[in-house]
Amino acid sequence: MRTIEALPAQSAAPGEVKRPIAWARWLPAIGAGAVLAYLVLVPLLLMLVSSLRPGGFPLDPGWTFANYATVYGAAGFPRLVGTTIAFAIGSTALALALGIALAWLIERTDLPLRGTIRALVILPMATPPILLAIGWAMLLSPRTGFFNLLIRDVFGLAQSPFNVFSLGGMIFVEGLSLVPTTFLFLSPAFRNMDPSLEEAAITSGAGIGMLLRRILLPMLWPSILAAGAFLLIVCLVVFDIPGTLGMPARIFVLSTQIYYLAVDSPTGVPLYGQVSALAAFFLCILFVLGWAYHRLTRQAQRYRTITGKGFRPRLMRLGGWRWVAFAGVSAYFLLAVVAPLAILFWTSLMPYQTRVTWAALDLVTLDNHIDFFANRRVLEAAGNSLTVALVAATAVALISVVLAWLVVRAKIPGARLLDGLAFAPVAMPGVMLGVALVYVYLTLDLGFAVYGTIWIIAIAYVTHYVSFGTRLANGVMVQLHPELEEAGAASGASTVRVLRRITLPLIWPAVVAIWIWVVAHALRELSTALMLQGRGNVVVPTLLWDYWSGGEPNRAAAVGVWLVVALVIFLSLWQAVARSRLERSS
Amino acid sequence: MLTVSGLVKRYDTRRADAFAVRAVSFDVAQGEFFTLLGPSGCGKTTTLRSVAGLETPDSGEIAIDGVSVFSSAKGTVVPVAKRDIAMVFQSYAIWPHMTVRENVAFPLEAMGVNGAEAKRRIESALSIVGLTAFADRPAPMLSGGQQQRVALARAIVKQAKVLLLDEPLSNLDAKLREQMRVELRDLQRRIGTTAIYVTHDQDEALSLSDRIAVMKDGAIVELDTPQALYLRPRTTFTARFVGQADLLPCTVVERGADRLALDTPLGPLHSTVFPPGLDGTLALLVRPEHIEFRDGEAAFGRNMLGGVVQRVLFSGRLVEYVVQVGAAALRVQATSRSLKAEGDRVTLHLPPERCVVVAGDADS
Ligand SMILES: Nc1ncnc2c1ncn2[C@@H]1O[C@H](COP(=O)(O)OP(=O)(O)O)[C@@H](O)[C@H]1O
Ligand SMILES: [Mg+2]
To answer: Which ligand is nearest to the CA of B39?
Structure first.
């Protein structure tokens, strides 16, 4: 028998012995809570304070509701809300329709080349929304858009048939850009559905229609609803596409309006008070949606039918429709990847914006690409982007894993609150988070500069991506059978040794996946960086934005091409890791 | 070797009646194979995990080899890693990122045993479970039975005082389960360790254990040797749980020193097995395999009954009959040596030493 440890208060009265344990139990919760409160609650609180200050700054004197009155009393307010909601619902509906079709075709039918197509979904994921928007602006702009000019020539029209700088154009591009996300959400649900449930329905005499109506849709419904709620949140807060396509036509949604008030306001001074008042309203809506999403995913979990029996899903025979479906899927890839990237690539090779013609081939030049690698400002942006992405990814992976362990496994008191706090930033628009952090670092004096440096951007990304990181880490931790860790303790290993030798090695693939995911997303995130832009912290997406909005589309295109290259590399890595994890767990 | 007394555990402290375990006490002797048997949800796992230290009970005392590892009165809670126990989990909990050898080596690594001593112990543990040839396989590339053996090897390599096993055979298929049952018993005898075994399968419990504690709703209802529990249960719950049982309501007509005369739906019967106190509702237990057929229309003597075969269920080795006796139906199990047919008139003998009076309601 080896050493036995009693609690320190062994000789004390029985009533007193438990108190030190109870205290110690709260310590991890307090530690993790403090980090999250600093990242999430402090910005939100300062934003709320600023909305109640006449000058719009948290440290300004006095209190007022004037900001709320101005924002909600403005003549344009109902239209702003209407446009935002129309944009969000339209884009969500389009993304859901295309995403469901794609997931079903790839996972449950005999679509030709299913495996290849599944791997290719990575391409639209690697295309940042802003590049998609710029590409489509080049394809469908009323004056110079490639498709518009083509259709005019072919049909002899006097007017361009399409205008991408419109609500419809925004919805079209946003919907396209969210299809990969929808697919990623729904394909596991399609794939993991136990085929015996379908077979039971068929042997009960159900036809295809009844199978779809009574079995498949009800079973998939929670997953579809959860995906829908998530997409709606994303569409309500997104900036890139409405910023690129809507602002030139003065069509504003929430996030672009915030940007406009903070950066581009007619008075020339940032109207922070109004920004905060506007943000407060939408935050309420978004938190309700976020809560709904949380509930829906819990429900979706309940329906999850992973039996671990290594079944092969039943594939539906499409028959003559096989090639029709294939053509449809190809059309999606053409619209979401090939066409916008091709025009981007073309533009990057041109000295100025030109029509795509044989004659224009004489103008081909590598100047924009050479400039990308020679320009100091570009190199600085690339360096900043990489630094921010790597630092944020490392911090997010670390925080997510520790939080998931505390919440899922250690079941510390207050676990649910911590989890909610970590998830909350998903409902904060990037522009809003940016503004809130401006308040924090202009208000708090930490003794060193954060505002205007790349570190303020890194902090913003950590806050934002912890919400995604913890979802992934929680999922993996839930799947890790607790007996694996308990067997370690029963073998005589200390908690630290169990974490180091058992828990960490087993969840390592998830850590890597979170890391790569955050790197890939931080590299393309625009809105927060734009709000936090100072002199010394330009990153690649903000550079891209500056070139584009500053009337240098060719340089913007070259930056975009290299951004896509970097993202494809990172996302391929991610897929490789994900695949190795799948193989290992099977 | 192991003493558990007054163990209480509630997971849901908001509900006053939600006890997972209420006042469980038992002693286990050195080298004994002790089993906790009961239906699912009766608190077996909670009890075992409390001994391991994976759950902290609300109150009670647990001592391993005379050393207190948990005491609510003194506030002692020895962490799992410091208790002299080894555990085999229901899911096996084989670490998938390690080989068989690394899995088995882990407890030694944690205890700081290394070098030749560690090597010797690993090899011996692997050879005891017959996995020497698989030592360098990645753990996930093993069959269920082999994973089970890795889990066992990992537990015995620690040479702990007490071996805890939580339904270790429940994930195996029927054939393998029976084979592993024999191996498990042999292994425990050979290494002489004290074992606490949790199961809901009465066959497993009866064939493996030195003593069995039958649990119900978080409490031990009976604790005895397998033979005693099977042949002389004291409650209707145990009578039903450890085997097939027909229970009949009965009342005592006359009480002798070692013999009771009973009134039952089958008519008057005699019993020689009954509890000392005869209060409350009583039931008569007759196991189907203890009922004998008597040839011919023998004279009606003591514990002899006449009836008609209602149903025959032939399963090869054994034949099960349902015999109508007056208003009651009785299950009878016999070998296939001589067969009866439906409608046959038969005479049954219920040996008084196998007519067991138990406490409880026959119909509940
Ligand atoms: N972690 C837990 N949280 C809440 N209730 C639990 C937990 N574990 C077990 N229980 C409850 O305690 C009771 C006893 O459970 P358990 O000891 O696992 O039973 P057994 O192993 O005999 O099937 C059951 O009613 C079960 O629902
Ligand atoms: Mg159990």
So the answer is: 1
Of B202, B231, B260, which residue sits at a domain end?
B231
The pair of three-digit structure tokens given for residue B150, joined into one six-digit string: 């890795």
Are B224 and B261 found together in one domain?
A: no
* ipTM metric: 0.76
Same domain for B81 and B175, yes or no, is yes
Q: Are strands B76-77 and B67-71 parallel, antiparallel or unpaired?
A: antiparallel
- What is the 8-class DSSP label of residue B82? G
Q: Does B89 touch chain A (CB under 8 A)?
A: yes
Chain A (477-516) residues lying within 8 Å, Cβ to Cβ, of chain B: 481, 483-484, 486-495, 497, 501-502, 505-506
**What's the gap in Å between B18 CA and the centre of ligand 1?**
10
A60-304 CATH: 1.10.3720.10
C-alpha Rg value of chain B to the nearest Å: 25
CB contact under 8 A, B97 and A506: yes
Tell me the pLDDT tens digit for each residue of A424-433.
Answer: 887 777 888 8
Q: Which residues of A254-287 are buried (b: 16+ CB within 10 A; e: fewer)?
A: bbbbbbbbbeeeeeeebbbbbbbbbbbbbbebbb
For residue A121, give the nearest of A136, A106, A139, A104 by alpha carbon: A106
Which helix or strand (DSSP H or E) is residue B308 part of? strand B304-314
pLDDT higher than 80, residue A155: yes
A262, A270 Cβ separation under 8 angstroms: yes
C-alpha–C-alpha distance, residues B87 and A540, integer Å: 55
Question: Confidence band (pLDDT; 50, 70, 90) for A204?
Answer: low
Nearest CA to ligand 1 atom 16: B43
For the segment(s) A367-586, the CATH number from 2.60.120.680, 3.30.70.890, 1.10.3720.10, 2.30.130.10 is 1.10.3720.10
The kind and range of the H/E element at A473 are helix A454-479
Chain B residue with minimum CA distance to A504: B97
* Gap between the Cα atoms of A533 and A434, Å rounded: 9
Q: Name the maximum alpha-carbon separation found in chain A.
A: 98
pLDDT of residue A314: 63
Alpha-carbon gap: B94 to the closest alpha carbon of chain A (Å): 7
Q: Is the dihedral of CA A284, A288, A291, A297 positive or negative?
A: negative
Of residues B22 and A8, the one with the higher pLDDT is B22
Q: Determine whether the interchain pair A483/B78 forms a contact, defined as Cβ–Cβ distance below 8 Å.
A: no
Gap between the Cα atoms of B219 and A479, Å rounded: 32
Any A CB within 8 A of B65 CB: yes
The Å distance, Cα B45 to ligand 2 centre, comes to 4
Q: Are residues B227 and B249 in the same domain?
A: no
Residue A578 in contact with partner chain B when CB distance is under 8 A: no
How many C-alpha atoms does A154 have within 13 Å on its Cβ side?
A: 7
C-alpha distances in Å from residue A228, one per residue of A17, A290, A298, B347: 51, 11, 14, 73
Residues B95 and B105: their CA atoms lie apart, in Å, by: 12
Which range, A487-501, B136-150, B284-298, is most confident?
A: A487-501
Whether A19 has a pLDDT exceeding 60, the answer reads no
Backbone angles phi and psi of B24, in degrees to 5: -95, 130
A165: tokens are 């700088």
Stretch A356-377: mean pLDDT: 80
Q: Note whether B76 contacts A10, CB cutoff 8 Å.
A: yes
**Rg of chain A over CA atoms, in angstroms?**
26
In sequence order, which residues have a C-beta less than 8 Å from that of residue A422 and are 6 or more positions away?
A36, A40, A400, A403, A466, A467, A470
Spans of all domains in chain A: 60-304, 367-586
Beta carbons of B93 and A483 less than 8 Å apart: yes
Residue with CA closest to ligand 1 atom 24: B41
For ligand 1, residues with CB inside 6 Å are: B 11, 20, 38, 40-46
